[in-house]
């Protein structure tokens, strides 16, 4: 079986309705074009939303103003940066506060969505998400421990503790799930659920026993926020995303084979355990770096990969770009709503992602494309 055959087979996933041989090439071609158009459309929409996010706030600016200020920093010599068109305050607000926030939201959404794609491929379960391997819960324990101990005044310690908690949780899941030289998907899911529940219990205990003034900080972190983002915070998620995208490019065909089954993938020369380990490590890296700087943002890694799969089919080479850009657009838009819907107060990101994403996802599942993917059965 050739790589092309693998793509054809995954586009005929067992959950899909059977098609005649003559229909399959037409379906694949249609999904390829849809993926290309979606990728271009999502990238354009993301640029617009980032500009809107950078222009929204108490200091009055338009999206065009924000785009001009950002361009002026990236391309020295722009006349509007020195002719008095914009004040120093407007420049600082856009470049130092709003742009880092919008970019961190986009990076976090892209990273969490890609982590969801990887984990759903590893366990071959559409209900899987980053939290399924306990990474988010482990990060929560680390961050809440720092808050409870009173070290939250040094903001960097919260992020560092969250990342260390995510790393410990990932190592624990690996240690328990790895048995007899293999990582079975079912064992991995059960191990992740059990350890995630254990870590959540520790977090709940710490929250209940801490002083009252710490509870708000704990809850805000657990629900997610990018309000304190700086340019420095972008480094971790950006590096993790670049590394993970490299993994997706080099393993795309092997992941397609894995979706057909372990035996088929092994027959095609795929080292199944090694592939699962690489994908899990990449997912843990993505999730840990995001939680460290943005808190526990749920829903993105569960639903955005689903939506991408419904729109472009089961081939991971098409799913990844659509899911990454879709996750970035979704979370950047959610953050824009979170800080404007009840201004000057701010709503945690986790609440917005659930309130917007769940109804849309349920509507999408009832559509024709979802029927083609077997999601409505």
Brief digest:
The protein has 377 residues and is mainly α.
Note down, in words, how this protein is organized:
By secondary structure, the protein is an all-alpha fold. The protein is built from 15 helices and two strands. Strands 1-2 form a two-stranded antiparallel sheet. Helix 1 crosses helix 9. The model is unreliable at 1-16 (pLDDT under 50).
Q: Which word captures the global form?
A: globular
Strand content: under 5%
- Mean residue pLDDT: 80
Give the radius of gyration: 22 Å
Describe the biggest sheet?
A: 2 strands, antiparallel
Layout of secondary structure:
Layout: H1 3-11, H2 23-55, H3 63-74, H4 88-123, H5 135-148, H6 155-177, E1 178-179, E2 182-183, H7 185-209, H8 212-223, H9 235-260, H10 262-267, H11 272-294, H12 300-312, H13 316-338, H14 349-365, H15 368-372
Antiparallel strand pairs: 1-2
Helix pairs in contact: 1-9, 2-3, 2-4, 2-13, 3-4, 4-9, 4-11, 4-12, 4-13, 5-6, 5-7, 5-8, 5-11, 6-7, 6-11, 9-11, 12-13, 12-14, 13-14
């Amino acid at each position: 079986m050739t790589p092309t055959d693998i793509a054809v087979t995954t586009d005929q996933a067992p959950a899909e309705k059977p098609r005649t041989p003559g229909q399959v090439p037409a379906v694949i071609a249609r999904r390829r074009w849809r993926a290309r158009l979606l990728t271009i459309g999502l990238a354009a929409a993301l640029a617009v939303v980032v500009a809107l996010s950078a222009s929204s706030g108490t200091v009055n600016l338009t999206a065009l103003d924000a785009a001009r200020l950002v361009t002026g920093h990236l391309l020295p010599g722009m006349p509007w940066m020195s002719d008095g068109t914009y004040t120093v305050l407007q420049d600082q607000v856009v470049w130092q506060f709003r742009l880092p926030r919008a970019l961190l939201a986009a990076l976090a959404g892209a990273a969490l969505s890609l982590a969801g794609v990887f984990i759903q491929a590893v366990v071959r379960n559409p209900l899987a998400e980053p939290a399924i391997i306990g990474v988010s819960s482990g990060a929560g324990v680390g961050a809440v421990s720092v808050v409870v101990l009173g070290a939250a005044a040094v903001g960097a310690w919260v992020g560092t503790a969250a990342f260390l908690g995510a790393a410990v949780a990932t190592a624990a899941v690996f240690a328990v799930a790895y048995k007899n030289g293999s990582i079975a998907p079912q064992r991995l899911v059960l191990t992740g659920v059990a350890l995630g529940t254990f870590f959540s219990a520790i977090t709940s205990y710490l929250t209940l026993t801490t002083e009252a003034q710490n509870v708000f900080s704990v809850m805000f972190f657990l629900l997610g926020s990018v309000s304190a983002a700086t340019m420095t915070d972008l480094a971790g998620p950006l590096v993790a995303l670049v590394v993970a995208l490299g993994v997706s490019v080099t393993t795309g065909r092997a992941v397609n084979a894995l979706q057909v089954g372990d035996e088929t993938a092994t027959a095609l020369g795929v080292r199944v355990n090694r592939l699962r380990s690489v994908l899990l490590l990449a997912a843990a890296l993505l999730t840990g770096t995001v939680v460290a700087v943005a808190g526990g943002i749920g829903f993105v890694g569960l639903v955005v990969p689903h939506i991408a799969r419904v729109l472009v089919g089961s081939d991971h080479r098409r799913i990844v770009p659509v899911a990454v850009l879709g996750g970035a657009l979704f979370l950047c838009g959610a953050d824009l709503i979170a800080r404007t819907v009840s201004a000057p107060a701010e709503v945690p990101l986790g609440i917005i992602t659930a309130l917007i994403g769940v109804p849309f996802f349920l509507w999408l599942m009832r559509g024709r494309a979802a029927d083609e993917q077997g999601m409505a059965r």
